[in-house]
Amino acid sequence: MKSLFAALYGPVFWAGFIGAAAWLVAARHLSLWVLPPLLLLALLTSFLAERYLPYDGDWNQDQGDGARDIVHALVNETLYLLGLAIFPWLAGTMALGPFWPGALPFWGELLLAIVIADFGITLVHYLSHRSYFLWKLHAVHHSVQRLYGFNGWMKHPLHLLLEAAGGMLPLLLLGIPERVMGVLAFAVAVQLLLQHANVDMRMGPLRHVFAWAPLHRFHHMKYGTAGDVNFGLFFTCWDRLLGTRFDAPRYRMAGKDLGIGSRPDYPCAYAAQLLEPFRAEEGVRAPAPPAALRRVLNREK
Questions:
Q1: What letters, b where the CB count within 10 A reaches 16 and e where it falls short, cover 240-274?
Q2: Residue 185 Cα distances to 100, 174, 189, 220, 232, angstroms
Q3: Is the pLDDT of residue 227 over 90?
Q4: How far are the Cα atoms of 125, 133, 165 from residue 129, in angstroms, in the given order?
């Protein structure tokens, strides 16, 4: 039973919740405000799945970071709701013209929006590992010592806005409809849950398509630049183009592999994390990868 759950969890969670959002908005013509309760249901489902089939049982235990992660999520999801509220104004002032292909069926519009947003968000993410200032903001997310669905939303608000701009600005300029943008924002939240899920899922051939947890965990390696891989939010195609896709299916990530190797002293408290990007950094030399992981990394070069 658990092996079937491991194989089906990713695709059913992704298609089920995003499909439900699209159906409620496009077919049932409900308000976009139906999406926040649906997102809470997705969060509860993720929480229960992590208890039923955890990738690492220790990652389900609060390590003094639970309350902080809740604050991060509340702040960042509030920004998401504010974005929904001001969308009509943004669309009215930023659209360059009626360039959006509104003749497509809703699922086609949504898939197009996901691809465009995924490219923009992935590019900002990639640059955040190349630019010192952007990295300082992005480092908040990389300071985690465990991976579970909830901390997919653990981001510095400024970096969240930069990623949102990278993904959403092209869509606003094209004149994307409000309902497509709303379901897209919901899809991003669902994808973040899957990317960081502490679920021992089995992706099979889907690991060549989707950037879910089995691949994204390697992005959180603390070993210097070893974690400069798997930047894609939704899909792996961007990492193939960038030459940054990495996979080591036989290596099992653990808490000791996570964090920022050069900053073992990175602050844990929420307020301190907001201020940390603007402080002088005093780092140490990042540790070397374990031998088993180093062999895989060397083969990839």
A1: eebebbbbbeebebeeebbbbbbbeebbeebeebb
A2: 17, 16, 7, 23, 16
A3: yes
A4: 7, 9, 17
Convert the pLDDT of each residue in 149-179 to its tens digit. 988 989 999 999 999 999 999 999 999 999 9
pLDDT at 52 over 70: yes
- DSSP type of residue 280: P
* Token pair in block for residue 274: 């907001």
**pLDDT at 300 (0 to 100):** 64
Sign of CA dihedral 56, 19, 247, 4: positive
Distance CA 281, CA 260 (A): 12
Q: Whose CA is closest to 58, among 258, 221, 229, 204?
A: 258
pLDDT-derived band at 83, boundaries 50, 70, 90: confident
SS3 23: helix
Given a contact cutoff of 8 angstroms between Cβ atoms, the answer to whether 227 and 142 are in contact is yes
Burial class (CB in 10 A: 0-12, 13-18, 19+), 175: middle
How many other C-beta atoms can be found within 10 angstroms of the C-beta atom of residue 96? Answer: 9
Q: For every residue of 179-242, which 3-state class applies, written as one string?
A: HHHHHHHHHHHHHHHHHCCCECCCCHHHHHCECCHHHHHHHHECCHHHHCCCCCCCECHHHHHH
Mean pLDDT in residue range 175-184: 93
Confidence of residue 301 (pLDDT cuts 50, 70, 90): low
| Cα separation, 160 vs 192, whole angstroms | 12
39/190 Cα distance (integer angstroms)? 7
